[in-house]
Amino acid sequence: MIGEGAYGKIFISTVGNINVAVKIISKKGKSNEYLEKFLPRELEAASKLKHENIINVFDVMESKNSVYIVMELAQGGDLLDKITEEGPLSKEEAQKIFKQIVEAVEYMHRQNMAHRDLKLENILLDSECKVKVTDFGFSKTVQKNELSNTFCGSAVYTAPEILKGEAYDAFKADVWSLGVILYGLV
């Protein structure tokens, strides 16, 4: 096992001669809201979003008790671990990484999709330090000027209007989260 989140465990596997990550999500003990709302959103985003800085999903399989998501392996770990282990990034490295994150989010927004859970832990790095945005469970398809009401994401990265319980522009909330990520990089 190489990782574990709130909803699943991630393992390394091999398909042919390619190493992949397999996220295994047990359906047991999960809320209906997660199984009927958030998991389908993650799977929809995975199938819809194709960008060099967004984790590539190769296949999704489902059994009675579990969902298996076969995806690109990002061997460099997440940005929070990198910063925790190595300390703040240099200005040059932060610029290089942040530019890739912004390009991925900009692409998502052009597809009318807001991530709504951008944080250092959801930004992975591959073996060449290339950014891979991941974890689309809270993502949502939204139209320009449409307001959202659902509180989601991690409070530290959350825009003030969301914390106040006000309706918010999900695209602008993603931009706020980007600012927090940049601050965390340096």
Automatic annotation (TrEMBL):
Gene Ontology molecular function, alphabetical: ATP binding; magnesium ion binding; protein serine/threonine kinase activity
Family matches, as SUPFAM superfamilies: Protein kinase-like (PK-like)
Protein name, entry field: Protein kinase domain-containing protein
Keywords: ATP-binding, Developmental protein, Differentiation, Kinase, Magnesium, Metal-binding, Nucleotide-binding, Phosphoprotein, Serine/threonine-protein kinase, Spermatogenesis, Transferase, Ubl conjugation
Protein family (similarity comment): Belongs to the protein kinase superfamily.
Organism expressing this protein natively: Sinanodonta woodiana
Domain of life: Eukaryota
Binding site for ATP: 23
Protein kinase domain sequence ranges: 1-186
Required cofactor(s): Mg(2+)
GO BP annotations listed: cell differentiation; spermatogenesis
